[in-house]
Amino acid sequence: MQTNNSKEKVRQLQNKLYLTAKKCDSRRFHALYDKVYREDVLSEAWKRVKANKGSSGVDGIEIEDIETMGIEKYLTEIKEELMDGTLRPVAFTHLLHWMSLPK
């Protein structure tokens, strides 16, 4: 079943991953990164954050900040950063810094 509804498309992806995992207990999903930056996944993620009145994450960006910037612009920037590997969450950056400290 094909659909243009982002919620349904994300649900289909989740279901496919679930069924694949259930089919084989030893199955590992190493190549899911490309699924994260799909436009339907990012759009659905935004809708869920907005509906849950999500608070700012480690980056300190509030929902109002994103709306001021423009939701499409923000999601496009996130997608590009995910695709080219430049998105580095603050917690991850702190971890890399901590790991580089002399022991």
Keywords:
103 residues, mainly alpha, 0% strand, globular
What does this structure look like?
- The chain has 103 residues and is an all-alpha fold.
- The protein is built from 6 helices and no strands.
- It is globular, with a radius of gyration of 17 Å.
Summarize this, please?
With 103 residues, the protein is an all-alpha fold. The chain is 65% helix and 0% strand. The protein contains six helices and no strands.
Q: Span from first to last CA?
A: 55 Å
Number of strands: 0
The biggest sheet amounts to:
none
> How much is the radius of gyration in Å?
17 Å
Q: What percent strand? A: under 5%
Poorly predicted regions are none
Mean pLDDT: 79
Number of helical stretches of at least 4 residues: 6
**Helix coverage percent of residues?**
55-70%
Order of helices and strands: HHHHHH
Derived from helix and strand composition plus strand pairing, the structural class reads: mainly alpha
Rough outline: globular
Question: Mind sketching the topology for me?
Answer:
Blueprint: H1 6-23, H2 33-36, H3 39-51, H4 63-69, H5 71-84, H6 90-100
Helix pairs in contact: 1-3, 3-5
